[in-house]
Amino acid sequence: MNKLLTTLFALAVASVTSLALAQASAPAKPAAAAAPEAAGAKTLEAKTAMCVGCHGIIGYQSSFPEVYKVPKIAGQSAQYIAAALGEYKKGERKHPTMRAVATALSDQDVKDIAAYFQSLGQDANAKLPEKADKQPNDQVAPLLTKAACVSCHGNNFATPIAGYPKIAGQHADYLFVALKSYKMDSNPTMGRSNPVMGAVAKQFSNAELKELASYVSSLETDLKTVPEHRFRR
Ligand code: HEC
Ligand code: HEC
User: Are the C-beta atoms of residues 91 and 98 closer than 8 Å to each other?
Assistant: First the structure.
């Protein structure tokens, strides 16, 4: 085999391996889907192929640091997606797999990927209610007031301050893990260090965070898990 072929072959094997790791229970995909077409000229399809292996499978679960559903990212704002990826890169968010994923992305990759997921599966005519479509129960209402969640995440929890996350309709188990992670800001292997959400989360017991997560998750959302890769033919 000549040198170019050997290199291409090695790339194909590497991407198949990482895909296989990423989606142990997913249906097999053709190896070519993830192989870069040529060095330096990665297509958007190649850049996002790996993400789909986890974020594009309905009900896909992560097992670190506990079992929970991988977050919905389709419909999240590009600005927040880019910020979150930057935090994994810098180690402010310590989830090991996402750190490895984010570290491999260039600034241009992050920009392209963030724009792609912001519009993925979105219906331009869809309208979310301006206020949360469900009233919180008597346990949850005072918790929401105590930390003024709506002042940053929006009255419907889906129209946050620019660059902040939409949280309405996100998986409850993920929201709970995310909220707890802000309490662990100095653990070297787990957690998230974010001064704003750290100050919020530390006001609550884990039982209260679970109640908050469950309420917020029950609200109407435009966040989605989009199972089919848009590029798939
Ligand atoms: C092996 C599975 C896996 C792969 C592959 C993967 N992710 Fe993730 N992703 C996760 C998990 C699990 C989390 C939650 C981590 C945490 O708790 O912080 C996450 C979190 C995220 C978040 C933060 C979401 C939020 O609401 O804060 C973004 C953004 C993200 N991933 C984007 C991507 C992109 C873009 C790719 C592809 C380049 C990708 N991920 C590949 C599993 C994966
Ligand atoms: C002062 C503004 C502010 C307030 C008040 C606030 N948040 Fe946040 N929230 C943020 C920001 C900014 C982030 C993104 C932090 C990061 O980059 O990790 C965030 C992140 C989150 C996340 C993680 C989302 C994800 O996709 O990973 C959850 C869950 C969350 N907030 C829930 C709440 C709840 C529930 C309350 C009220 C109890 C609340 N927040 C109050 C600003 C705020």
Answer: no
Per DSSP, the residues of 121-158 read: T--TT----SS-SS---TTHHHHHHHTTHHHHH-TTSS
- Segment-wise mean pLDDT, segments of 10 residues, the chain, 233 residues: 39 38 45 47 87 94 94 98 98 96 97 97 92 96 98 98 98 98 93 97 98 98 85 54
Pocket around ligand 2 at a 6 A CB cut-off: 71, 83, 87, 147-149, 151-153, 164-165, 167, 170, 175, 178-179, 192, 194, 196-197, 200, 212, 216
Q: Which domains does the chain have, with CATH numbers?
A: 11-23+42-119 (1.10.760.10), 140-217 (1.10.760.10)
Alpha carbon distance 157, 108 (integer Å): 29
Instruction: Report the residue among 69, 73, 153 best suited for mutation to probe ligand 2: largest number of ligand atoms under 8 A from its CB.
Output: 153
Nearest ligand atom owner, CA of 50:
1
Which tokens go with 90? 């810098």
**Nearest to residue 87, comparing CAs of 185, 19, 226?**
185
